[in-house]
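User: Hey, my collaborator sent me this sequence without any context and asked if I could get a structure. I don't really work with proteins. Can you help?
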Amino acid sequence: MYGFPRDLDLDDIVGSEIQQICLGRFDVQFRFGSGRAICTQALVEVFQGGEMISAWDQEGKWSTASFQVLLDAIIEGYAVLDERLLEIHFKDALKLRLHDTSAEFKSVQFYPEMIVV
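Assistant: No problem. I've predicted the 3D structure and written it out in structure-token form, which is a compact way to encode the shape of the chain:
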């Protein structure tokens, strides 16, 4: 069984920002100023002030282009809400919710600092 562990350590992203949002045919990748990357093939939701402003699903399409507000937004913290939901908090009342929607496959991957050669 997969899912987000309660003790998931993403402390390195706090204080950094999302520098890139990479869109693939079947995934979205978030690249952080800390060097970490998160790749997902499951539901992604973006909230501003409690209202959902954009969502991405396995069809590979964003519901609106409003997800771009995440670029350069400073991360204030994160929380594992349950084994299927990770929430990343930004300044300006922004939230990024990553869902783990599969019990059979890993639908969210975390990559440590990228090495550039």
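In plain terms: The chain has one domain: 11-111. You can pass these tokens on to your collaborator as they are.
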